[in-house]
Amino acid sequence: MNRGKEPLLSTLEKNFVLEAIRESKRLDGREVYDYRRFQITLAREPGHVEVQLGSTRVLTCVSCEVIQPQPHRPTEGQLFFNVELSPMASPAFEVGRSSSQGTEIGRILERCFKESRAVDTESLCIIAGEKVWSIRIDLHVLDHCGNIIDCAAVAAITALKHFRRPDVTVIGEEATIHPVTVRDPVPLSVHHMPLCVTFAFFWEGQYLLVDPTHSEEAVMDGRLVVGVNIHREICALQMAGGVAILPEQVMRCSQIAAVKCAEMTEIIKSALAGAQPGAKEVSSILSTSKAREELVVPEVAMEEEGPEGKEEMEEGSPQVVCLGEGTAELGVGGQSTWAVEGVGGWEGAEEGAEIEKKVQSTDGDVIDGGSASEEESTAVVTEKDITEDPQATQDQGLDTSGAVDLKAALKKGRRGRKQPQGKRTAVAPQASARPSGRRKRGKN
Prior knowledge:
Elements: H1 11-22, E1 38-42, E2 48-53, E3 56-67, E4 78-85, H2 100-113, E5 125-127, E6 131-143, H3 148-162, E7 164-165, E8 168-171, E9 174-177, E10 186-187, E11 195-202, E12 207-210, H4 214-219, E13 222-228, E14 234-241, H5 247-274, H6 279-294, H7 299-304, H8 307-311, E15 320-324, E16 327-330, E17 358-359, E18 367-368, E19 375-377, H9 390-394, H10 406-412, E20 418-420
Parallel strand pairs: 4-6
Antiparallel strand pairs: 1-2, 2-3, 3-6, 5-6, 7-10, 8-9, 11-12, 11-13, 13-14, 15-16, 17-18, 19-20
């Protein structure tokens, strides 16, 4: 097989393809205006994209460097397209030699991207007249199965949207380029996304179809490439071949190209949205929140539990109290199970047992403070020791009739006798004020 030449089709194969097109049929089963399946793969490195259109594959790598601007455009950066057709894509391509087909593809992409100002080149300026960014787009054709131009256009615009350049700080005449580890890189300013749609004409322009394959390109009479964006703006137009077409056919092709461009733009945006950093973390958070909504405390089971169940609660079966939708408290509302046992019970309890307070309003009122220690003093209070304190209650505007001063009486009762393991009692006839219940230890 000779290198540098396209593999030829036999006469029978050509006639078969042409007759199928005349009957509006294609070898792969597609309709006339259908594209092959697109597959976009984004690498972790920004600007590295692989696009597959059917069996045609194009790998794109975007890089940048600082150069001096052109003299007639001192405030604009530069875009440079380089198309490499490797022999692994097709036997017609040679190593290290630029072919006419590669040059044609590069010029169409430059016309479509640069002349339509898809990328803001003024935003690539660092210092006017001295330093600007130069963006280089390298396209490597890995497999050639027809329609390289459309596949390369999708790969180029996707790589430009995915690319990030280093951040720059300009102070006076000095520019500092920050590495990626210090500052986050900056995306390029892309105004719109131009795409190319290729039409192939057969039978002297009587029949046309979209996205021709390699065998269909071998028998076509002419080709029309329409560069258009999602706003239905024509960015580039190229006609190749010896077939003559009417202006009505050009308008019809431009309308079809606008529809196909909208479909491809949605595919590119979906691929770029899935490659945003943190997309997986957000999805895991959403799934977790959905699981939390399903874990709601059942309210029916709590309503069926009556008040008797709360009073006769056993130890080890805590009560669940609903505080709101999706919120509950555990162990609130039941009786305390930490009651201190009597003598011979817990040894670590402070001063023994629970203190009981009893007040009886009779002539011989008994104030029971509980037995808390081995030695307690008992004070006997008589009527002579109890004095009225009209000044204490007169300031508060209260009725002083029958009020007594127990503080002074208890203070005098400290000189009483001591009883081991006894209870402190205070006899207060006609007492209307309740004591605070605090215990007074006697002196040993």
